[in-house]
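Reviewer comment 2.1 asked that we show a complete input and output for one of the modelled complexes. We chose the magnesium ion case, as it is the one discussed in the main text.
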Amino acid sequence: MIHEKSVTPPASNFLRVVIAQDNKSGKYDGRVVTRFPPEPNGYLHYGHAKSIILNFGLAAENHGRCHLRFDDTNPLKEDVEFEDSIADSVRWLGFDWGEHRYHASDYFDALYCFAEWFIEQGLAYVDSQTAEEMRSSRGTLTEPGVSSPDRDRPPAENLDLFRRMKAGEFPDGKYVLRLKIDMASPNLNMRDPAIYRIRHASHHRTGDKWNVYPLYDYTHCVSDALERVTHSICTLEFQDHRPLYDWVIDQLADGGLLERPLPRQYEFARLNLTYVVLSKRRLIELVEKKHVDGWDDPRMPTLVGARRRGFTASGFRLFAERIGVSKSDSWLDFSLLENAMRDDLNDTTERRIAILDPLKLIIDNYPEKQSEICFVPNHPQKPELGQRSVPFSRELWIERDDFMETPDKGYFRLSPQQEVRLRYAYLVKCTHVDKDAEGNLIAVHATYDPDTKSGTAGAAARKVKGNIHWLSTAHARLAEIRLYDRLFAVPFPGAKNPIGHAEEAPHTVETTLPDGGDGDAHPLLEPHARDYLDDLNPASKRVISGYIEQALVDAHPEDRFQFERQGYFVADRFDHRCERPVFNRTVTLKDSWNKR
Ligand code: ATP
Ligand code: MG
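Response of the prediction step:
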């Protein structure tokens, strides 16, 4: 299932242990079936990548399978456009669900029949209380709930009302169907949870067929059981829902409506990363208020954004393997993700030359109109990737900060005092500089030593400390270079203490409701304490034109390279053309954030 290289050896984690035990005991006859259940109401983000890699990865390791199931129980918020993008992103991460692409709405008929069965068993009733009444009679952690006046309505009456709810006789909110479990349960989720509500809404797959829609807790466990899922892995906020998950499918299995062995739910810590926000609500706000250039803006923590930025699927898998899975929430520093991408790209990308802030270097003793070829390896540690030729001539572009007229102490690049190597070419010495009327530097003059060409016998005769890169002005091509950096300037956008260190942050995350949950719930994030938008990094995108070598002009969209001494870059997926090359910076070579 994993197309590219995977990481070996995998470290153990509690999920791997559980699955190994189940395989050993034969609980599921050796079957391992997981699922990834996105709600098709937005684009996937980095957090989802963790869940996808975990679910598909565990299945693959155990020769099992992972289902892609769209959790489309809320007709008001969902869209086919999102489904396509979600499926694309899962595929991009390297996974394949085969024929196992499902929708919760595939089970609307079964869910409805099961609901009637619960009513007939005296285990569900139609409640006419308002949402407000239900909320206030639910009790608290210390006080039991108060039974609804409708709790003892006879099954026949409940059935009649439920059928009329389905037939569309009542307006939205008039009734709900609730399970009859235990109004005094210490677990609030067990206090007669609602499982169906009236919604006169068109659904993107079932159209106008339904006027009642099942709620998440009821739908999820039944869908898992119907698909014969074995290990249902979700984030920690669902831990308190597990007794309900078990109760529903246990009852149905006892009634002969579901097959045993039943799936079991396991919870892991969601991914929380510094310097980004990972909640749909905020991602939507960033797009709608145009703080970014759309969902696939390379700065967005979406998977479409990650792809456009040049992040790799194998980098995400490396990251997921490195961070592992835990049962308690914590915040991870963004540099862990960047480092995984660097390590992956270091291995897989060829090197190229680009000059992003050009300064002219004129070699006065090199013949005018002459040029020659220098051979440049495509990867310093991988000779098997071969080499390419880069033309050298009298006028070159070098990086502006590779020259200093009056060098600082410890500066080893080009200066009037300092001979350097033009990488893969000759040693050069600065002779003088040209300045304009205002005293700005316009060109540096130098002489070269013809006996020092890299790869020739004389090359190593004289040692120099500096080694800088260059491109011939006559051969270099202009490109649009988009320099992306972190979207937020602080680790905890919007927090009372936004720069608090990740390690110092309390390792707990508020319990959030399963639908409408806020991925950024955090004790430091006092609601409205500060606006997270105030923490945007004003320098997160800078567009410049730079010079690139000829070989880069032929790059295809999404080809990735290391620009020597600059960072990793990708040819933009949509805008790059041979006539008008566009490269996005994926990540710099080294982490500069933790040193600021
Ligand atoms: P958000 O909180 O951003 O709105 P969500 O949880 O509502 O996301 P879903 O489409 O319901 O989004 O999520 C699909 C799956 O991805 C769920 O199993 C969910 O637990 C998991 N998931 C969502 N966010 C994260 C995260 N930050 N880390 C790990 N898994 C996540
Ligand atoms: Mg959700």
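Confidence is low (pLDDT under 50) at residues 1-7, 502-528. We note this here for comparison with the apo prediction described in Section 3.2.
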